[in-house]
TrEMBL record:
Residues 111-209, 221-293 form the Ig-like domain. The keyword Transmembrane applies. It comes from the Eukaryota. InterPro entries: ICAM_VCAM (IPR047012), ICAM_VCAM_N (IPR003987), Ig-like_dom (IPR007110), Ig-like_dom_sf (IPR036179), Ig-like_fold (IPR013783), Ig_sub (IPR003599). This is Ig-like domain-containing protein. Its main location: membrane. PANTHER family: INTERCELLULAR ADHESION MOLECULE (PTHR13771), INTERCELLULAR ADHESION MOLECULE 5 (PTHR13771:SF9).
Length: 335
């Protein structure tokens, strides 16, 4: 039964293929190639068949024609520029078969340029607003081996890959959406085009990086101490109220009703009260209140009177302590 099943399967192979199956007598070395556009390439095709009617290479460039009495033929091209080339090594066997082996060829080209820009925007950015970055990569192949990487400084942000099987050079412009914050002010963004061509390709993978895009981010003022402040001031003394705020562009300051454009303000010592500071720039504004309370200034006579009273009390305590000590040391003594 097993023999009959084997004969049936063999018959099926012969019916559908017209010939029995067997291992290919051809071997390519190397089995696949990765070539830079315009470079040379050379591949050997060897046969294990001892008796054949000739072998050769068929290709748009570098074909050899049929060669007799050889067991190896070489495909060579000095300047490979055909993006779609598919070299085929073939052999004519005595039984009339012609096995063929196709050489996989990856022809690559690094990009002419890689640049980064902000779409539909120029000048400083505004905190909390969405922007679209674009990476323009010119004239690169093959696209399916391209990986585009986005960076903020040295921090990786995103990777973009392609499934397009086109072998010829193309232009691509991947994008990245961002919403900058004040922490992005002064940051540098860049994109990198990386051709990963596998183990047969250049190692490490070929890389071209854009020039950095410097970020300027505008944001509204914020106080380092946003809460209202209450302070005491003696008549005749000076006090400086600090209304410093962080913002970009640099904030301007207005105190109460006077147009004092400064973060520090010294109010008149004889005019305690409430002072309001407003810090503003192109993006927004914020206010803070200072309440200054009067505090009576003590006289020098009062000061010396207090000091004298303290000294007199201390002396009296010392005298009392002395007589108590003497009394306990000699009970029969008299004062």
């Amino acid at each position: 039964m097993v023999k009959g099943l084997f004969e049936f399967l063999t018959l099926c192979v012969l019916v559908f293929t017209g010939r029995p199956t067997h291992a290919s007598p051809l071997e390519l070395n190397p089995p696949r190639v990765v070539v830079r556009y315009g470079d040379s390439v050379s591949v050997n095709c060897r046969t294990s068949a001892t008796d054949h009617g000739g072998m050769g290479w068929e290709a748009t460039f570098g074909g050899t024609g049929l060669e007799q009495d050889v067991n190896i033929v070489t495909w060579t091209v000095d300047n490979l520029t055909d993006w779609t080339i598919e070299p085929k090594c073939y052999i004519n066997l005595i039984d009339g078969e012609q096995p063929v082996k196709v050489l996989p060829v990856i022809l690559y080209k690094t990009p002419d340029s890689v640049s980064i820009s902000v779409l539909r925007h120029s000048g400083p950015m505004v905190e909390g607003t969405e922007y679209q970055l674009q990476c323009d990569i010119q004239n690169i192949a093959p696209l399916r081996n391209l990986v585009v990487k986005w960076y903020k400084g040295n921090e990786p942000l995103d990777n973009v890959t392609y499934s397009n099987v086109s072998k010829t050079p193309v232009d691509v412009s991947p994008t990245l959406m961002i919403i900058p914050s004040r922490d992005d002010d002064g940051a540098q963004y860049r994109c990198r085009a990386e051709l990963d061509l596998g183990p047969e390709g250049p190692q490490p993978p070929l890389v071209m990086t854009s020039e950095p895009l410097d970020f300027t981010v505008f944001y509204p003022p914020t106080f380092s101490r946003p809460e209202a402040e209450t302070l005491d001031i003696r008549v005749g003394e000076e006090m400086t109220l600090n209304c410093t705020a962080a913002g970009r562009p640099t904030p301007l300051y207005i105190w109460q009703s006077s147009h004092v454009q400064d973060a520090l303000f010294t109010p008149p010592s004889k005019l305690p009260g409430t002072y309001t500071c407003t810090a503003s720039n192109l993006i927004g504004k914020i206010s803070k209140t200072f309440t200054v309370n009067p505090k009576p200034k003590g006289s020098s006579r009062t000061f010396y009177a207090i000091i004298g009273s303290v000294l007199a009390l201390a002396l009296a305590l010392i005298v009392i302590a002395y007589f108590v000590y003497k009394q306990r040391a000699d009970p029969n003594s008299t004062i």
